[in-house]
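Reviewer 2 asked us to include a model.

Predict the structure of this chain.
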Amino acid sequence: MEFAEIFQSEAFKLYGIPLLICLARITDVTIGTMRIIFISKGMKYLAPIIGFFEICIWLAAITQVMTNLTHISNFFAYAFGYSMGNFLGIFIEEKLAIGTVVVRIITKKDSHALAVKLREGGYSVTVLDAEGNAGSVNVVFTVIKRADVSKILPIILHYNPNAVYSIEDIRFVSERGLPSSEAKSKRNIINFLTRGIRK
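Predicted model (structure tokens):
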């Protein structure tokens, strides 16, 4: 059977086209989710580039849906691809850990040991005295690369297990005071993309 006959066959229209639509939607929505995240982090050059590929893939998917309106499976494939694309885009972004965050720690216990440990790790730390509902507290601020959050949390829990902490994304921060890892975000992207090759 020639390729032209395969593409025109009823089996391909029933199973092949929905599969292609689903894969196209997963790809373009994943890229779109990443694009929105890049925009929120101020990556104004990368976002339009991936946006170009996103819309090209979307046009290919919607064209197949509109051409094959008689097959309800195409609509389900389109919707399923959309939902999976959102999940996959967020998953990839979490693995890349792009950007910078501010960690705010509020503790009733003296925060001196915690601050010392964080500074030994190369992080810039600011400690403030404050007043909470139950009395005096210390407020500790540190700005870190998002990829370092997993390193910071065990330190907080070790030195101040009852501390209240919050982590917030920030769009811009000067590099002074951050650990010397200027290319860390780029390395995270490269490591993520090559991880499957090394396995």
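Residues 181-186 have pLDDT under 50 and may be disordered. The chain has seven helices and four strands. We have added this to the supplementary material.
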